[in-house]
Amino acid sequence: MQILVLGAGAGGGLPQWNCGCKNCLDARNGTIPPMTQSSVAVSVDGSDWCLLNASPDIRTQMQANAPLHPRSVRGTPIRSVVLTNADIDHIAGLLTLREKTAFTVFATPETHDVLAANSVFGVLDSDLVQRSVIQLDQPFTPTPGLSITPFAVPGKVALFLEGTDLDLKAMGEQTIGLRISDGAKVLYYVPGCAEVPDWLVAQMKDADMLLFDGTVWENDDMQQTGTGVKTGARMGHMAMSGPDGSIARLSPLDTCDKVFIHINNTNPLLQPHGPERAEATAAGWRLAQDGMIYQL
User: Fold this and answer.
1) Under 8 Å CB-to-CB from 164, ≥6 apart: which residues?
2) CA-based Rg of the chain, rounded to a whole angstrom?
């Protein structure tokens, strides 16, 4: 299984267009690498590719990665797109993929309803772009030889769908993780998660590799950097650090390759020589970067 990180950043990427925090300044001056918004491509044979989420940066991401280039006058090696939720940074890229080329969009009924309710997604020609409904805990095949099983993880609805009655750790179709297998190796992709219960740790015990939500280091990253008032929990993301953080909660997964992805621009983990990076590295974690290729 080939795993290509198209974008490692959270919504807004790095640098974020309207942000002058230290991380964004360092990304602009080349001290730390920039990141586009979170998306991953997976393939069994290197010819047929499945996108995990379609970020607003998808055109730039495909241009930067030769395996996703067209191989004829008109065409694409992208056979499918699997959506883990309806966040803008995961669905907006679908609008870029509107140029009369066939592929299939796989999503839960709830996420498909969001797309159907917004007429702008009608630019995806229904004669070419199939919309396939997936069910929780039921495997499906997005490309030959690749099996994906979606499962619910704690999380909230997309920002633009929030109402007055908001459950930040809801369980259902609005936020899912993906178990991805080629029959030999297993990858888990969980770019958004509000907490890690014991059952989730047990469920992912068969992982050979885990790409997990790395949005914030501490719950109040944005407050500490003076960039906003929202906490990680309010955004539907758990902290990495602390006794209830993802590093501690996922420590029993000690035989798999653990990589943080969907990293917010304010996260101090982005500083390569900071104490946060040292702590994460010592705990067996790596940091995803745009263009990284993993082979399982």
Assistant:
1) none
2) 18
What sign has the CA pseudo-torsion 251, 253, 258, 264? negative
* ∠ Cα 141 147 148 (to 5°): 95
**Which homologous superfamily does the CATH classification assign to the domain defined by 2-295?**
Ribonuclease Z/Hydroxyacylglutathione hydrolase-like (3.60.15.10)
Neighbours of 184 (CB within 10 A): 9
CA angle (159, 79, 5) in 5-degree steps: 60
| Sign, Cα dihedral of 290, 17, 51, 82 | positive
Residue 295: Cβ-neighbour burial (10 angstroms; 0-12, 13-18, 19+): exposed
pLDDT digits (tens, 9 = 90+) for 6-52: 999 999 999 999 999 999 999 999 999 999 999 999 999 999 999 99
pLDDT band at 164 (very low <50, low <70, confident <90, very high): confident
- Could you read off the pLDDT of 2-12 as tens digits, one per residue? 999 999 999 99
User: DSSP labels for 31-57?
Assistant: SS--B-B-EEEEESSSSSEEEES--TT
What is each CA distance from 90 to 58, 93, 175, 184, 213, in whole angstroms?
A: 10, 7, 11, 28, 14
Place of tokens 């030889």: 145
What would the mean pLDDT of 185-195 be, rounded to a whole number?
Answer: 98
Q: Which of these, 35, 39, 40, lies nearest to 9 by C-alpha position?
A: 35
| Helical segments of the chain, H only | 22-29, 58-64, 88-91, 109-117, 198-203, 221-225, 246-249, 275-282
Residue-range domain boundaries for the chain: 2-295
